[in-house]
Design a protein that fits this description.
about 120 residues; 6-stranded mixed sheet; 4-stranded antiparallel sheet; about 0% helix; about 45% strand
């Protein structure tokens, strides 16, 4: 069983920045061999991939966030980050992290999600 704890969300004006954090832990979960990803879900919408990072550090981004968001990881801290710049109202959503089954489709590995962290972009 893995525990995923997201934090760092909040209310920000358009054009602003936020940094999200995801701490992963679990008895049999080995963080540094897992691809990790951030997903988001807006009201009335399906959850979607935002960004992913492989165990080697290669990254993948949704077209809507390319050039604005940066995913990174610290294997020593079992933590994955999402730096979000130039935020837009359409980035408003609950953001979740998860390990990824693979680094091609980036399907989430675990069915049990954390509580997520709310990001609201509004003036």
């Amino acid at each position: 069983q893995v525990s995923l704890v997201e934090s760092g969300g909040g209310l920000v004006q358009p054009g602003g920045s936020l940094r999200l954090f995801c701490a992963a832990s679990g008895g049999f979960f080995i963080f540094n061999i897992n691809a990790m990803a951030w997903y988001r879900q807006a009201p009335g919408e399906q959850r979607e991939l935002v960004a992913g990072i492989t165990s080697e550090g290669s990254t993948n981004y949704a077209d809507s966030v390319k050039g604005r968001f940066t995913i990174s990881r610290d294997n020593a801290k079992n933590t994955v980050y999402l730096q979000m710049n130039s935020l837009k109202p359409e980035d408003t959503a609950v953001y979740y992290c998860n390990a990824a089954r693979d680094d091609s489709n980036w399907r989430p590995r675990y069915a049990d999600w954390g509580q997520g962290t709310q990001v609201t972009v509004s003036s």
